[in-house]
From TrEMBL:
<dbReference type="InterPro" id="IPR050490">
    <property type="entry name" value="Bact_solute-bd_prot1"/>
</dbReference>
<dbReference type="GO" id="GO:0042597">
    <property type="term" value="C:periplasmic space"/>
</dbReference>
<dbReference type="InterPro" id="IPR006059">
    <property type="entry name" value="SBP"/>
</dbReference>
<keyword id="KW-0813">Transport</keyword>
<comment type="similarity">
    <text>Belongs to the bacterial solute-binding protein 1 family.</text>
</comment>
<dbReference type="Pfam" id="PF01547">
    <property type="entry name" value="SBP_bac_1"/>
</dbReference>
<keyword id="KW-0732">Signal</keyword>
<protein>
    <recommendedName>
        <fullName>Probable sugar-binding periplasmic protein</fullName>
    </recommendedName>
</protein>
<feature type="signal peptide">
    <location>
        <begin position="1"/>
        <end position="32"/>
    </location>
</feature>
<comment type="function">
    <text>Part of a binding-protein-dependent transport system for a sugar.</text>
</comment>
Amino acid sequence: MHVSKRLPSLRKTALALATGLAASLTLSSAQAGDVEVLHWWTSGGEARAANVLKELMEAEGHNWEDFAVAGGGGETAMTVLKSRAMSGNPPSAAQIKGPEIQEWGELGLLGNLDGVAEAQQWETLLPETVAEVMRHDGHYVAVPVNVHRVNWLWANPEVLDDAGVEMPTTLDELFAAAEPLREAGYIPLAHGGQAWQDATIFEDIVLATAGTDYYRRALVDLDPEALGGEPMIEALSTFKRLRTLMDDDMSGRDWNIATSMVIEGDAAMQLMGDWAKGEFTAAGLTAGEDYLCAPAPGTQDAFTFNIDSLAMFRVSDEGEREAQEDLARLVLEPTFQKAFNMAKGSIPARPDLDMSEFDSCAQQSLADFQRTADEGGLMPSMAHGMAVRAAVQGAIFDVVTNYFNDTDMEAEEAARRMVNTAQAAY
Ligand code: BGC
């Protein structure tokens, strides 16, 4: 069962949180200049990236208190954050994304970054798609760290060569690659059976089979006709077919372990956002040579974006506030944007930086971001908290993962459940 179901939703706990906040303003344990940052960047590549920020903050004389909560996709981190906030002691900053920023803003718990935003000219520095996510009620409350693309396919070229297959560009090619890869002794697709990873590949399939407009209607606008329609049923069936490309031990496997199966040459490919590139980079591998990247098959016209951001909690201590402002400023400075994103696999949140030191996958990502923004294919990722609020996302995760793991459940039934649960959670 999805964790968020067991927890009270943010809205329902508003009162408790407000009471907690009153306590936090007097009980805050932070010393001047301390900045406690909650995040879930704990894999090899992620930790290297997080360390960039820690070092920059320390170089400015601040004390970085690392509050890392392991668990891909951040579900566990969000659970821990809710309980810290409810006890009146939120961290100074937390990795909070997309519409969830609005939920925390509505509770009155977030601080105001308008001063830094004005000094650094965020209005002109950031694309509006990015900037609007960072504002609550017209005020900046969070700073964007990066732009991740979710709809990627990663591959080990030696494994593909050995089996005589090309990097698939369509779903038909992906399914057709399975047999030669199996015959050559490889797992075609590395996957970790966790709800958020299932949802990550599910949204790729919706894009590939039903297209970007349908994706938006179903997974962003939650139009019941699209959520339960024939194209959704088809997408669900194709999604379940992906199981034929996976191995039997995938249940519960972390995403970075799946990436290491591609790195080690046990598996040929992985469908995963470009934080997977952080793992290839940490292993010293070169894009385009030691590993390949391409848009998830059939999704060349789409870019599912996932913007990591740090939201600041309202604090009373002046030193802590200054540390928050320094943190926000540093995050958007070129030094951080380059070093962090080269390690993390993402592209900078500000598009004005020289990308010549970035690898070929990152350069393609930026070009595709701009192209899809112009052509209408730039879509918020549902699986990564950019499209719908947490309760709806959790409800969709439950249906998707239960369907994927239940050999008896028909696609029609899953589509019906999707309509019902999305409406109930809304
Ligand atoms: C986050 C990434 C993170 C990934 C795996 C995503 O939701 O946006 O920063 O690397 O989850 O944990």
